[in-house]
């Protein structure tokens, strides 16, 4: 790492010529996240607001590029770990995120369920146990008073505040269930993300695999297929297979990103809308196909 060159570039960063400043920015960006601490030190030592603003911009761009790269690796690697995908999205807003802290918080909830679980519990009994631990002991609930707040889509914030939107609560819930070998999966229902308890022994009859549905936003309320029929009817939507069956981890991450887009649009934060759009392209097969 050539710190002399980096220091020289930082000193030239406040050049009034935008073209020169842009060229210097490009050189600094090429170093990647290894120079973030150095840039932060320079920001603290500077009293020049123009220089500080440009340093902030470079730091953000480096961190954003890292998030895009991590998300791309997760996507191309098969998107097997949903929690990892949610953590990567979290790093967009919280780049200094302590990933291990999130893992530990999820493990604490899982452990509490595991300690109370009995071998011969039925599917319904297992879900009632998760509900008791998740909502009564740990105190999670849907954020009904400020539902559009983007913080509801960041898993670290939901784990701290114990309040979230449909999809983030569902993500935490299903990660806990799956880590206990309980077959709970996400369902991409329009305007409401829900969970399904799947009987994986019924591969011969896919239409009968879902035993029941769970509403993570409403204290883990358990309901059936007819309730989805009624919900779709209210929305004047034609029933489709995807509204009833499990969706992929990629579908879930896309939905989190779309929720963030909607939240930032309402707040008028156009730059964030643009960047979230770039992240959405990373997990969009159409974007991948067009690059082939």
Automatic annotation (TrEMBL):
Transmembrane residue ranges: none
Annotated ranges, domain Protein SirB1 N-terminal: 101-258
InterPro entries linked: SirB1_N
Origin superkingdom: Bacteria
Family the UniProt entry places it in: Belongs to the UPF0162 family.
Name of the protein this chain belongs to: Protein SirB1 N-terminal domain-containing protein
